[in-house]
Design goal:
Layout (H helix, E strand, L loop, with lengths): L2 H18 L5 E6 L2 E5 L9 H13 L2 E3 L2 E3 L5 E3 L9 H17 L5 E3 L2 H20 L5 E10 L5 E12 L3 E3 L1 H11 L2 H22 L5 E5 L13 H10 L6 E6 L10 H10 L3 E7 L8 H4 L4 E4 L1 H4 L7 H15 L3 E5 L4 H9 L4 E3 L9 H17 L5
Parallel strand pairs: 5-6, 8-10, 10-11, 11-12, 12-13, 13-14, 14-15
Antiparallel strand pairs: 1-2, 3-4, 7-8, 7-15, 8-9
Length: 389
C-alpha cells in the first residue's frame, strides 16, 4: 500500500499498544515493525500473560488506512528480570529469541524465554559457522532413493537426498540444518552443489543402467525467493555434460503453488525450456488450489506418505489416492506414491493405476555405491524374468 500507509499503520499500532499497558510502563519502537514494552513492578509473572494476550487480540482487529482495511498479526517474546538476565543486552537478546520461537510456532502468539531457547540459538550459531565451511571441506554427501515403475519393476528414477556428515556430531538431520541454510542464504550455494553432483551421477547411470535414467533434486522455497533465481547456469551445465534436460526432475513443495501469481511460473520457465521436468512433492498436504495445476506445466505429482501409510481396501486414504491418480492422468501428469512400505500398499497402488512407487518396501536411501549394487541386482532380476531395463 506504499510507505505512507505503512507509516499510518505504525502510528495506529503504537496507539493500540499504549492502550493495553499502564502509564507507568515503557513503550518504544526499536525500528521497522519491532516494538518493545517494559512492564514495571509486577507483583508476579502471572500478570504478564493477560497483557500479552490482550496485545495480540487488539492488534488482530482490522486497521482502517484511508479507504483500505489492513489485518496484521503480532508475535511476542517475553523475558523476565532478574530471573532471565540482569543486563539490557541480555534481556533484549532473550526477548528476541522468544519472539522468534513465537513466530516458528505459527505467529500471532507469545512465548516466554527459556534456557532451552538459548541452547537452541547457540547450537544454531555453531551449526551456521560449520555449515559455511561444509562445502569446502567436502562434508556433504548425496544419498539416492530409487523410484520404481510399479507396473514393470524397472528402476530408472531416483531422488537425491542431501546428507551432512559433521566431523564432530556425525550425520545431522536435514530437518535441522536445511532451515539454517535457508535463513542464512547458504541454500543457494548448497543447492548448486546438489544439482551439479546429481547431474554428474545421472550421466554415469544413463550410460550404465538405463538411457532414460532421471534423478530428482529438491529445491527449497528459499531458492525461489528474491532475485537470484535465474538458474541459467544449470542448463549450461547439463549441456556441457551432454545431458538432456529430461535427465533431471526438479521437486518443489506444494506450498510454492500459492506463489504462482508472484512469478513462480516465470522462475520455472528456464527449467522447462531446457527440458527439465517438475514434480510437486508431498501432494495433498498443502493449501494449494487445484486450479494452480493448470497454470504450471507439472510433470509429476508425488502422493504424500501420510496417505500411503494407511492404505487399505475401501479406506478413505485409498479413495483419496485413487482420486489423485485419476485427476493427474486427466491432466497429463504421472504419479509417484511416497512411503510405500508393504506389499498390500503396492498392490493397491498398482490396481488404481499409480505409475511409480518410492519407499522402504523397495529400498531406503542409499549412498552411490550401494545403490549401484541395488540397480545391478534389479537388472539381473528383470533379465531373469524376461524384462529389460
Amino acid at each position: 500500500m506504499g510507505h505512507q500507509k505503512g507509516d499510518e499503520l505504525l502510528v495506529q499500532v503504537a496507539e493500540r499498544i499504549q492502550c493495553c499497558v499502564r502509564a507507568s510502563d515503557t513503550l518504544a519502537r526499536l525500528g521497522g515493525d519491532e516494538f518493545t514494552v517494559i512492564l514495571r513492578e509486577l507483583s508476579n509473572t502471572g500478570d504478564i500473560a493477560p497483557v500479552t494476550q490482550g496485545l495480540i487480540t487488539r492488534l488482530g482487529e482490522y486497521f482502517q488506512l484511508g479507504k483500505d482495511r489492513a489485518y496484521i498479526s503480532a508475535s511476542i517474546g517475553v523475558t523476565v528480570y532478574p530471573e532471565d538476565g540482569t543486563s539490557s543486552d541480555i534481556l533484549l537478546q532473550n526477548a528476541y529469541q522468544a519472539m522468534y520461537a513465537a513466530k516458528q510456532s505459527g505467529r500471532n502468539g507469545f512465548r516466554f524465554f527459556t534456557a532451552a531457547m538459548q541452547e537452541t540459538a547457540q547450537l544454531r550459531t555453531r551449526l551456521l559457522n560449520d555449515l559455511r565451511q561444509a562445502l569446502q571441506r567436502s562434508e556433504f554427501q548425496l544419498y539416492y532413493q530409487p523410484i520404481v515403475c510399479l507396473s514393470t519393476g524397472i528402476i530408472h528414477k531416483a531422488e537425491a537426498l542431501l546428507r551432512w556428515k559433521h566431523p564432530e556430531y556425525g550425520f545431522i538431520s536435514p530437518s535441522v540444518f536445511i532451515s539454517v541454510a535457508e535463513d542464512s542464504g547458504l541454500i543457494h550455494d548448497i543447492g548448486d552443489w546438489v544439482f551439479k553432483e546429481a547431474a554428474q551421477q545421472v550421466k554415469q547411470w544413463r550410460e550404465r543402467y538405463h538411457r532414460d535414467f532421471q534423478v530428482s533434486v529438491n529445491k527449497s522455497p528459499a531458492q525461489f525467493s528474491g532475485g537470484k533465481v535465474a538458474h541459467r547456469h544449470w542448463s549450461d551445465h547439463l549441456e556441457m555434460l551432454g545431458l538432456p534436460g529430461q535427465s533431471i526432475v526438479i521437486e518443489i513443495t506444494e506450498g510454492l503453488l500459492l506463489n504462482v501469481d508472484g512469478g513462480l511460473k516465470d522462475k520455472l520457465l528456464p527449467f522447462k525450456n531446457s527440458g527439465v521436468q517438475v514434480a510437486i512433492d508431498d501432494f495433498g498436504t498443502g493449501y494449494s488450489s487445484l486450479a494452480y495445476l493448470n497454470k504450471l506445466d507439472i510433470d509429476f505429482l508425488k502422493i504424500d506418505q501420510s496417505f500411503t501409510r494407511n492404505l487399505s481396501p475401501g479406506s478413505t486414504d485409498s479413495a483419496l489416492c485413487e482420486a489423485i491418480v485419476v485427476m493427474a492422468h486427466k491432466l497429463g501428469q504421472l504419479v509417484i506414491a511416497e512411503g510405500v512400505e508393504t506389499e498390500e500398499q503396492r498392490a493397491l497402488l498398482v490396481q488404481m493405476g499409480c505409475d511409480y512407487g518410492q519407499g522402504y518396501l523397495f529400498s531406503k536411501p542409499l549412498p552411490v555405491r550401494e545403490l549401484e549394487v541395488f540397480l545391478a541386482a534389479n537388472q539381473s532380476a528383470l533379465a531373469s524374468d524376461g524384462l529389460t531395463a
